[in-house]
């Protein structure tokens, strides 16, 4: 920290913290993320709704939100997890040269079918009113420009079941076309809360925060929740005015600390490879490293685990990752993970074999290779196992020494690499066996090259 850093008055600081925490217990909520994003509110809700409804996205909710949405609109489709589902936005009526474009279409059915079996048509309204005969035009449309495997249209008459939904504000007019069922944003928010509240802790924390913020924004749109409490706000601001000098000192100190942690993060990014190279035969072991400007994505993996089966810009990859982010450094933690990319198309799209790489990889880890994998992870003593998610498969946190943050990071990275990747670890062997079998099953060919085993140390 700089020599001219301010001296903080301890008694005043303690008084300020006590006052503010008493106010904070009343839960003054900051504005939602939509308040700082551009584009119309309708477009924001459309994009967010599409994201959370899609079970293939990386939010981790899988089919939970989609199932709850279908319950809210009284559309019941069993065994969603066993079906192929596609969701597209801004879908045009096939051959329509006018304004025939609906906000969202959700379609599903057999992955082997040449046409969806069912579809839900959604028109979303927040502030705008229905266009002239808009819903009538949608209701009468026979064919839509919607991709389903090799086909680029869906025909309404081929669908076994359909649902037309007009999502609107409570006070807005109902759709002019009777086939569209009116559902309010308030109904949707209440349904989402009621259906997910008991199980939210089962899902990734970041996704829960995003989804909760989405529901809160829906409530504000409907006037279900006040965005501001004037009395509480004034009371908070009075605390600020009373301690404004102290707050400025704290802000200045925090700014310097943030800069310090950024410096440490950058230093670790720039030097971790050299530290490992001095101890491990990375190249001779057939392994490789990858440094990103984002501290989150520092990778180490066998080169054999980086394949290009489809000759595309996105490759199949299985890798170990550590992340010297400022947040983890503040928490005095080195986090080491074994990961599969959860959002790459080559990983998640269904291939000619009828399976996707990530789905089959997760299944193999929990079935055929479950005992071997469990034994290997037990020896390492990992903190979290998510083999069924095909994302962060395995996680272990290593504590750092606050008195020697940089040195202890390199020491713990060496420990993590030895435990997860070293010649005495069974994990690389087991994971490679899964990798090879899944690769052959999904892409109907062997991976290119050769796996040389764990990462050996220099003598």
Instruction: Please indicate the count of domains.
Output: 3
- Main pleated-sheet profile: 6 strands, antiparallel
Q: Please give the count of helices.
A: 14
Average pLDDT for all residues: 85
| Sheet/helix structural class | alpha+beta
Radius of gyration (CA) equals 27 Å
Q: Unreliable segments (pLDDT under 50, ≥5 consecutive)?
A: 1-6
Oligomer: single chain
Spatial order of the strands in the main sheet? 8-9-12-13-15-14
Q: Helical percent range?
A: 40-55%
* Number of DSSP strand runs: 15
> Per DSSP, what share of the residues sits in E-state strands of 2 or more residues?
15-25%
What is the H-and-E element order? HHHEEEHEEEEHHHHEEEEEHEHHHEEHH
Identify the overall geometry: flat
Please explain how this structure is put together:
By secondary structure, this protein is α+β, with helices and mostly antiparallel strands. It has three domains: 10-28 and 229-242, no CATH class; 33-221, no CATH class; 271-443. The chain contains 14 helices and 15 strands. A hairpin with an 8-residue loop joins strand 10 and strand 11 (316-317). Helix 3 (64-72) crosses helix 5 (185-196) and helix 11 crosses helix 14. The chain is flat and about 75 Å long. The two termini are 40 Å apart. The relative contact order is 0.09.
Could you give a quick summary of the protein structure above?
With 459 residues, the chain is α+β, with helices and mostly antiparallel strands. The chain is built from 14 helices and 15 strands.
Itemize the secondary structure elements and their pairings.
Blueprint: H1 10-24, H2 41-53, H3 64-72, E1 84-92, E2 101-109, E3 118-124, H4 134-140, E4 143-144, E5 154-155, E6 161-168, E7 180-184, H5 185-196, H6 205-221, H7 230-242, H8 244-277, E8 287-290, E9 298-302, E10 306-307, E11 316-317, E12 319-322, H9 326-330, E13 333-339, H10 345-348, H11 357-366, H12 370-380, E14 384-385, E15 392-399, H13 405-421, H14 427-443
Parallel strand pairs: 3-6, 6-7
Antiparallel strand pairs: 1-2, 2-3, 4-5, 8-9, 9-12, 10-11, 12-13, 13-15, 14-15
Helix pairs in contact: 1-7, 3-5, 5-6, 8-13, 11-14
């Amino acid at each position: 920290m700089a020599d001219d850093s301010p001296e903080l008055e301890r008694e005043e600081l303690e008084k300020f913290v006590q006052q503010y925490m008493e106010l904070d217990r009343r839960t003054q909520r900051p504005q939602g993320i939509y308040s700082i994003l551009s584009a119309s509110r309708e477009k924001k809700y459309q994009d967010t709704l599409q994201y959370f409804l899609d079970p293939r996205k990386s939010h981790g909710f899988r089919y939970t939100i989609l199932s709850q949405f279908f319950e809210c609109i009284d559309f019941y489709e069993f065994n969603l997890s066993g079906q192929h589902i596609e969701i597209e936005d801004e879908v045009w009526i096939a051959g329509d040269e006018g304004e025939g474009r609906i906000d969202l279409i959700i379609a599903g059915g057999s992955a082997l079918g040449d046409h969806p079996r069912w579809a839900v048509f959604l028109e979303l309204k927040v502030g705008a009113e229905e266009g002239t005969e808009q819903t009538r035009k949608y209701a009468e449309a026979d064919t839509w420009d919607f991709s389903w495997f090799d086909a680029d249209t869906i025909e309404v008459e081929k669908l076994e079941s359909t649902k037309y939904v007009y999502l609107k504000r409570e006070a807005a007019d109902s759709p002019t076309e009777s086939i569209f069922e009116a559902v309010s944003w308030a109904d949707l928010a209440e349904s989402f809360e009621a259906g997910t509240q008991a199980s939210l802790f089962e899902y990734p924390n970041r996704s829960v925060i995003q989804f909760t913020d989405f529901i809160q924004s829906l409530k504000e749109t409907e006037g279900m929740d006040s965005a501001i409490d004037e009395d509480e706000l004034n009371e908070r601001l009075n605390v600020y005015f009373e301690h404004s000098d102290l707050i400025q000192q704290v802000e200045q100190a925090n700014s310097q600390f943030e800069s310090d942690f950024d410096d440490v993060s950058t230093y670790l990014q720039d030097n971790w490879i050299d530290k490992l190279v001095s101890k491990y035969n990375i190249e001779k072991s057939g392994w490789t490293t990858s440094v990103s400007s984002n501290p989150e994505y520092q990778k180490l993996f066998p080169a054999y685990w980086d394949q290009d089966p489809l000759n595309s810009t996105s490759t199949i990859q299985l890798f170990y990752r550590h992340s010297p982010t400022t947040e983890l450094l503040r928490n005095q933690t080195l986090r080491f993970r074994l990961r599969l990319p959860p959002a790459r198309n080559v990983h998640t799209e269904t291939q000619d074999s009828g399976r996707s790489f990530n789905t089959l990889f997760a299944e193999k880890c929990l079935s055929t290779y479950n005992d071997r994998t469990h034994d290997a992870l037990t020896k390492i003593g990992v903190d979290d196992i998510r083999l069924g998610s095909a994302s962060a498969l395995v996680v272990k946190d290593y504590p750092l020494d606050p008195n020697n943050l940089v040195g202890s990071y390199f020491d713990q990275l060496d420990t993590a690499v030895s435990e997860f990747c070293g010649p005495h670890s069974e994990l690389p062997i087991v994971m490679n066996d899964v990798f090879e079998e899944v690769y052959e099953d999904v892409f109907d060919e062997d991976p290119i090259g050769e796996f040389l085993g764990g990462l050996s140390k220099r003598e």
